[in-house]
Amino acid sequence: MNNETGIEYWKKLIVVLCFGWVAIWIYRTVLTPIYPEIQAALGGISDTEIGFIATFYYGAYCSGQVPASLAVEKFGQKLTLLCGFGLFTVGTLVIGSASGISMVYTGSLFSGLGCATFFCSAYSLSGENVPENRRAFASAIVNSGAAIGMGIGLIGSSVLVKSMNLAWNYVLYFSAAVIFIMFIVFALMIKPRENEPVRVKEAHAPTPVPEGGGSNLLSLELVTVYFLYFCTCYGYYMIVTWLPSYLQTERGFEGAAIGGASALVAMVAVPGALFFSSLADKFKAHTVKLVIALEVMAALMLTFTVLASNTSVLMISLVVYGFLGKMALDPILIAFVTERAPKARMARALALFNLSGMSSSIVAPPLTGFISDITGSKAIGFYLSAGLLVSGAIIFTLVYLRGSTKATVQAA
């Protein structure tokens, strides 16, 4: 860390990055509560076509990960972020002015490419400037912006469109304004990286690599974590995309209650992320057990959401899922990867990790929409998400036990 930046700078930086996620997640969730209104406005398009809105966005987001990381290395985080959020603003405005689904897809593509610049820029900035003993907790604070943005997007669009009868595209104009404000904040608050190519390496140098750790990016342990993250994200993005529609069409929720119930899932994720990241830092020897417990519990909560016979049980299931779901696991799994990846290829390992998780966001929305079109219900989508979580936890457990047995034999 550059001492000239001082403690004040890294603290401000974490707040700025947190609000970056807020802007991104307002956009990501602002449409989901008003899918029925969008379908009606665009000529009664199907659930599958609606699901492809997210597919275009996340497909572009995943495709842009590697080019964005190369841009960060060549031009620095600040310029990369400014270019990305400029494109992000344009894409959001394109969707807001769309008269057909093709134009919505185009805007989603632009927005996804713009957002792709954030992950590598944000976490390389925190890696360079945040003290080593604060990085896990700092990551949880940055990640909490996603939950805050999700809550604002879900509640905001529900109130504006369903309760105040505002045209659906106006929520996109509001989102574009928030994104442009963050463009200005990045320009004013983020300091350009100095020409010190060794800084990133020095920032990661203290990270210990355990004996027997992966010697390549596709070691069995790392591939297992990549798959586990895919399973974790699949359920999350299924919830983000289709929960509001499920609550409205299959559980009888109306008006602002749709966004409010969905937003509650996001808001409880903030204390969950902070609590479990602190717990993982304190009891590192039990990290694997904690991960397995969280995955299994999340699967149970998704199942209970569908099986719930009344609103109270349904809401309890959703709240518990939010508390111990993806947001709680993110900082733990990121630390798991960084401790096992080769030091020289840490960034690429994290890129593969993020790509694995985000690839689920390409599959989950249209697949759940397709299931809904075929069966008339999104319940099977919830069961599929729960099954993936359990499968990921089982494979993760088996690989961990294999590694522990191997280490015991070698020690003997």
TrEMBL record:
Keywords: Cell membrane, Membrane, Transmembrane, Transmembrane helix. The chain crosses the membrane at residues 12-30, 50-72, 79-98, 104-125, 137-161, 167-190, 223-243, 255-276, 288-308, 314-337, 349-368, 380-401. InterPro entries: MFS (IPR011701), MFS_dom (IPR020846), MFS_Efflux_Transporters (IPR050189), MFS_trans_sf (IPR036259). Residues 13-404 form the Major facilitator superfamily (MFS) profile domain. The keyword Transmembrane applies. Its main location: membrane. It is found in: Cell membrane. It is a multi-pass membrane protein. The keyword Transmembrane helix applies. This is MFS transporter.
